[in-house]
Amino acid sequence: MDFTLDDEQRALQSAVREMAGRLVRQATSGDVAVGPQPVDREVWSSLAEMGLLGLPFGEDAGGMGASAVEVVLASSELGAARLQAPYADALAAAAMVADAESAPDGLLEQIVEGSQLVFTALAEPGRAWDPEHPETTAVEQDGTWRVTGRKLGTTALSEVDAVVTTAFCCETACVFLVRQPAVKDGVIELDGAEAIRLGGPELLQAGLSLGIVALAGEALGCMGAALTMTTDYLKTRKQFGVPLATFQTLTQRAADMYVSVELARSTALFAAMAISENATDGATASRAKALLGRTGRHVGQEAIQLHGGIGMTAEYAVGHYTSRLTAIEHTFGDSRYHLGLLARGLADHEMVDVLV
To answer: Does the pLDDT value for residue 146 go beyond 80?
Structure first.
């Protein structure tokens, strides 16, 4: 599989890097938390103006008609710049709207242009991540679907215009769109809320696969930046009168970080290419998510340890990258969840390519 980037892809990388560089000031104050954050309107408008919100969607909806590979390239630059925009979450929600059996007219176009904030709300309070088996239920009354249950998002939902969520109906998990949901203390309270049924489990998988690809790109950007900071530190910081890079054990650990970053890069691009051809390829998405979780944890922990005490300070970016990598690892199912999915599917294959 050829991972070489063409001229257009390199131009996209350069443009996103330049845009992220202009907006990076909001992420460098040292006190930016890594949990769900309110959407920064300036950042969101910039993403929309550059076309990143519609990158993988058709030109008829205002999108760019690009593939998931371009999503990885763009989100990698956002991750390296530490822009805490819910880009992956928005793409996952938009993908489910784009492929819905019936979605409100013009909604995808409004998402792409940034005028409507639509994110996912797939987790449930007090339960492990399991969007395919929700406790939330949906019933149809007089031609109108109504959803009842409690949901959590990966994004702060106080200003959201609508959420894409799951509920049990028709003997399976179905995907619904709920406009103006009631949010209390970060939890969406659905008490017979009117909803629009978008589709079934395949639609859910397609959205999550695209979201995981975007997360993989962001994690890759965080890992690459943390590796660069660490190697620069080892080359300049002196101990006993010599740079730390002259100590063989430290350079070996940095080399192991490099191996993890390159393995993550290959995995993210492979997953993007595979999902571009088959949006419902859940096995590839799970393999990528599990491996990115492992490599991200390795790179983040080593970056902090090789920096010593400075890696733990709030003013230093390497700790921010590690915190964000940890948050990414727990978004859309953690490594243990995706390894469980892969394990349950082993019996479906005569031979399995070992990736993780």
So the answer is: yes
User: In this structure, how many other beta carbons lie within 10 angstroms of the beta carbon of residue 340?
Assistant: 14
pTM of the model: 0.93
Q: What is the mean pLDDT of residues 248-258?
A: 97
Residue 92: exposed, middle, or buried by beta-carbon count in 10 A (0-12, 13-18, 19+)?
buried
What is the distance between the alpha carbons of residues 299 and 82, in angstroms, rounded to a whole number? 16
Q: Which amino acid is at 72?
A: V
pLDDT band at 39 (very low <50, low <70, confident <90, very high): confident
| Amino acid at residue number 277 | E
φ/ψ (deg, to 5) at 322: -65, -40
DSSP 61-96: GT-----HHHHHHHHHHHHHHT----HHHHHHHHHH
| Amino acid (1-letter code) at residue 264 | A
- The model's pLDDT over 161-194, given as tens digits with 9 standing for 90+, comes to 999 999 999 889 999 999 999 998 889 999 999 9
Q: What is the pLDDT of residue 27?
A: 47
Q: What is the pairing mode between strands 172-179 and 144-151? A: unpaired
DSSP state letters, 18-32: HHHHHHGGGG-SS--
Token digits for 207?
């959205």
Tokens 């192991």, located at residue: 256
Partners of 195 in the β-ladder: 145
